[in-house]
Specification:
Chain lengths: 156, 235
C-alpha cells in the first residue's frame, strides 16, 4: 500500500497524524505514547538543520515548545501537538541534526510524549486524505515555495 | 507610484491616525523633524534611493504635514527599504529621516503590522542569535544552501569551520554557534535588558514562535541565577 503523497517535492505520509499549522507529525504507538517530529514540508522550509535543542523531560501543555530547531538562516519551535509528559528525546539529533532533513518521519523523530488529555485534544490532529488536503491548502495559501520542484542552485 | 495610498483605502482613517499618533508621541520625534527646505540632500546621499522607489524626503514631509494616509502607506512599504545608514542625517535643517524611519518601524513592529512580520521573517535566526547570545552573526550561518551567491568557496568554509575557527589566536573566537564566547553574566544582564525595555513584547507581536523559544532559553538561565521574571515585568 502506498502510504505517501507528494505535494511538489514534499512528502506527506498518510499513516501519520498532523497538526498542520505547527508543521508537526504524530505517530500513535501501541504503548499509548506518541512519537512527534517535524514534517518534510518544515525541513524543506528550514533547509539544512544545524542544531536541535530538545527538552529532555517535564510536562508540556499543548502549543508549548518541545524543541528548538535551527538551520543556517532560520529558527523555529516544535510546538507540542497535545499536552503531555516527555518520556524520551531523540538524543541522536544532538550529534547528527541532519537526520531531521534526511529522514523527517523516521530516524529524525524528535521525541516521545505520554499524552495527558488525548481525547480532548486529538480532534485537532488530521490524518490521511484530510491531512494532505489541509497541507495542500496551507502551502497554497501561504505560498510556501520550499515544496516547489525547482532546480537547486547549490554550488557543485 | 511612490505616494499612492489607494491600496490602503479600506483601512479606517482612525486606525491610520492611531498609528500616526504613536509615531508623533515618541519622545525622539521632535528631535528628528524640524521642517524641510526641499533641498533634496537626503535623497542625494541615500543609497536606498538609488535602488528603490524610495525617498527619505517623502517620509519626512508626510510626517511634517501629518498626512496619516501617506504615513500609513510608508509604514507598510517604504520604511523597510531603508538601510538605516543615517547618511540622510546630512540634512541642513537637522532632520533625521533615518531616525524617523526607526520610529515608524518600531510602531509597525509593536502593532504587529503584516509588513513588519514579512520584513523580519527572513531574519528569525539573526534575531534569535542577538537576543539569546548577544552576537548577531554566527559563523555557522555560512552554509552553501544559504549563500549560493558566495560560490563554491562557502562549501569548503562550512565543512572546515570548526578547525579554522580554532586556528584564530584569541580563544574566545573558537566558536561556531556564536561570533565569540559570551559569559553567563553578560547573558543574564542582556536577558534582563530585553525584558525591562519591552523588546520581548515587540518580538511577541511579530513572531510568536520565536518569542516562545527565546522565553524558554531565558527562563532557564534567569531562574538558575535566582531572578524572578514575573516580578521584573511588574517593576
Amino acid at each position: 500500500m502506498n502510504d505517501t503523497v507528494k505535494i511538489g517535492k514534499c512528502v506527506i505520509r498518510t499513516d501519520l497524524h498532523y497538526l498542520v499549522d505547527s508543521h508537526c507529525w504524530v505517530r500513535f504507538n501501541d504503548d499509548g505514547t506518541l512519537t512527534v517530529g517535524i514534517t518534510d514540508v518544515a525541513q524543506n522550509m528550514a533547509g539544512p538543520v544545524l542544531h536541535v535543542y530538545i527538552r529532555k523531560k517535564g510536562m508540556r501543555q499543548k502549543g508549548q515548545n518541545l524543541a528548538t530547531i535551527e538551520s543556517g538562516k532560520w529558527v523555529g519551535p516544535l510546538k507540542a501537538p497535545v499536552s503531555g509528559e516527555i518520556v524520551e528525546a531523540n538524543l541522536a539529533l544532538e550529534k547528527d541534526p541532519g537526520l531531521v532533513n534526511r529522514s523527517p518521519y523516521g530516524d529524525g523523530w524528535v521525541m516521545r510524549i505520554k499524552p495527558l488529555k488525548l481525547e480532548e485534544e486529538r480532534g485537532a490532529l488530521l490524518s490521511g486524505a484530510e491531512a494532505v488536503e489541509a497541507y495542500r491548502r496551507k502551502i497554497e495559501e501561504q505560498s510556501i515555495k520550499a515544496c516547489a520542484e525547482v532546480a537547486e542552485c547549490e554550488p557543485k | 507610484m511612490g505616494c499612492e495610498t489607494s491600496k490602503y483605502a479600506a483601512v479606517p482613517y482612525e486606525e491610520k491616525l492611531r498609528l500616526f499618533e504613536q509615531v508623533k508621541g515618541d519622545e525622539r520625534f521632535a528631535h528628528y523633524l524640524y521642517g524641510c527646505y526641499e533641498c533634496g540632500v537626503c535623497v542625494a546621499v541615500c543609497p536606498s534611493a538609488r535602488f528603490y522607489d524610495f525617498s527619505p524626503r517623502w517620509i519626512a514631509q508626510a510626517l511634517a504635514r501629518e498626512d496619516a494616509d501617506l504615513v500609513y502607506k510608508f509604514m507598510n512599504e517604504d520604511v523597510w527599504d531603508c538601510s538605516q545608514c543615517f547618511s540622510c542625517d546630512k540634512c541642513p535643517r537637522k532632520n533625521s529621516p533615518g531616525g524617523l524611519i526607526t520610529i515608524l518601524r518600531e510602531v509597525a513592529v509593536r502593532n504587529g503590522l503584516k509588513s513588519a512580520k514579512d520584513a523580519l521573517e527572513g531574519y528569525g535566526r539573526i534575531i534569535y542569535k542577538i537576543i539569546s547570545t548577544g552576537t548577531q552573526v554566527a559563523p555557522d550561518m555560512l552554509q552553501p544552501a544559504a549563500f549560493p551567491d558566495w560560490g563554491p568557496h562557502v562549501k569548503e568554509i562550512s565543512e572546515n569551520l570548526q578547525w579554522w575557527r580554532r586556528a584564530l589566536p584569541p580563544e574566545t573566537l573558537h566558536t561556531t554557534e556564536t561570533s565569540w564566547d559570551v559569559s553567563e553574566q553578560t547573558l543574564r544582564e542582556l536577558y534582563l535588558i530585553w525584558h525591562v525595555t519591552g523588546v520581548m513584547e515587540m518580538i511577541k507581536q511579530v513572531d510568536e514562535g520565536l518569542h516562545m523559544i527565546l522565553m524558554d532559553v531565558m527562563e532557564e538561565k534567569l531562574e538558575e541565577a535566582g531572578f524572578d521574571l514575573e516580578a521584573t515585568a511588574e517593576d
